[in-house]
């Protein structure tokens, strides 16, 4: 049973990863990454890491990917269509060769490490292995310092994101004049339909009144 | 299921992510490929934790997830800042690091 689940989840993870790399549209790449992350959560459950699997689904596939979808919907509308080829053929071939060499090297390093325990499924562990209770106890006793450092890192990242993305009122920032027509016809309103290349939502055309000039 | 199968999946995902970082030019997609590579490392960490029967490797994976969240935060902030300045969203076009 666990073999079947492993192969389903593993093939799903690899297909999701290939989808992230191959798909042209960033919006679909984000969806492929969500699929990849859900498959990884299944793999984590097979390895008896329940807390990490739950955090993966809730934090990663939930919150972080929603952030991605927001930014893709915000940025994707104004992205001009590609005028030149995405990447040269030589660079693509070189990247593929590099990735293949990396995979072969990692596989040799893992399988040739002569670690006896790699060929086993690991020791039998109780149901409490990887449970939230155990992870929480480790985080608050043995790994208290990394836990606090991680919280500082999150704080710094939040401040940095606000500083990076805020509207600047400083020196050298020219104020862009906004035409009145821009309010009626916004270039993009950040819908998911625009993110996948769909038409932008526009104001409906003004109705033509019958009768012309001298009518009503 | 033996641990080395998980490590094979991990190295495959890592190689795919590295190829994506090298071939794509949209910074959003490059960030997604970096996520792939970090997740590949997470599978390896959790597989080794299972191999030793020791949950301390899972703490490492949780910390990696925290670092990935910070990286996404800063990266997406940069993308939004690039978009606000009407610069092209393309890593080949953005060569100068003026503030």
Oligomer: heterodimer
Look at the structure and give the CATH class of chain B: Mainly Alpha
**Architecture of one domain in chain A, according to CATH?**
Up-down Bundle
Give the count of helical stretches of chain A: 8
Would you give the CATH topology of chain B?
Helix Hairpins
- Indicate the low-confidence ranges of chain B by residue numbers: none
CATH superfamily of one domain in chain A: NADH-ubiquinone/plastoquinone oxidoreductase chain 6, subunit NuoJ
Strand count, sense and closure of the main sheet of chain B? none
| Arithmetic mean of pLDDT of chain A | 81
Give structural notes.
- The complex is a heterodimer of chains A (216) and B (99).
- Helices cover 61% and strands 0% of the residues of chain A.
- Chain A is an all-alpha fold and 216 residues long.
- Among the domains of chain A are: 79 residues, Four Helix Bundle (Hemerythrin (Met), subunit A) (Up-down Bundle); 40 residues.
- The longest helix of chain A has 26 residues.
- In chain A, 22% of the residues are buried.
- Chain B is mainly α.
- Helices cover 77% and strands 0% of the residues of chain B.
- The longest helix of chain B is centred in the last third of the chain and has 29 residues.
- The radius of gyration of chain B is 17 Å and the shape is elongated.
- The chains are: A mainly alpha (216), B mainly alpha (99).
- At the A-B interface, α1, α2, α3, α4 and α5 of A face α1, α2 and α3 of B.
Task: Briefly say what this structure is.
The complex is a heterodimer of chains A (216) and B (99). Chain A has 216 residues and is mainly α. Chain A has 8 helices and no strands.
């Amino acid at each position: 049973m666990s073999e079947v689940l492993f192969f389903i989840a593993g093939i799903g993870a690899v297909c999701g990863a290939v989808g992230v790399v191959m798909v042209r549209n960033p919006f679909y790449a984000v969806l492929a990454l969500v699929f990849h992350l859900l498959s990884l959560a299944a793999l984590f459950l097979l390895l008896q890491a329940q807390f990490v699997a739950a955090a993966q689904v809730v934090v990663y596939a939930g919150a972080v990917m929603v952030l991605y979808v927001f930014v893709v919907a915000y940025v994707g509308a104004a992205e001009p269509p590609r005028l030149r080829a995405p990447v040269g053929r030589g660079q693509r071939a070189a990247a593929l060769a590099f990735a293949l060499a990396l995979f072969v090297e990692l596989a040799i390093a893992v399988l040739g490490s002569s670690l006896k325990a790699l060929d086993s499924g690991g020791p039998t562990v109780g149901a409490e292995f990887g449970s939230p209770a155990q992870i929480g106890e480790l985080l608050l006793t043995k790994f208290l310092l990394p836990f606090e450092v991680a919280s500082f890192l999150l704080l710094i990242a939040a401040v940095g994101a606000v500083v990076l993305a805020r509207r600047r009122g400083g020196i050298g920032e020219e104020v862009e004049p906004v035409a009145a027509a821009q309010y009626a016809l916004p270039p993009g309103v950040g819908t998911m339909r625009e993110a996948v290349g769909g038409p932008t939502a526009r104001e409906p055309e003004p109705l033509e009144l019958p009768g012309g000039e001298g009518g009503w | 299921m033996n641990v080395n199968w998980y490590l094979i999946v991990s190295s495959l995902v890592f190689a795919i992510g590295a190829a994506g970082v090298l071939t794509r030019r949209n910074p959003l997609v490059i960030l997604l490929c970096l996520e792939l590579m970090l997740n590949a490392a997470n599978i390896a960490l959790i597989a080794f934790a299972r191999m030793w029967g020791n949950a301390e490797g899972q703490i490492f994976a949780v910390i990696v997830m925290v670092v990935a969240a910070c990286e996404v935060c800063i990266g997406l902030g940069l993308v939004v800042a690039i978009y606000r300045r009407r610069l092209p969203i393309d890593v080949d076009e953005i060569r100068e690091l003026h503030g």
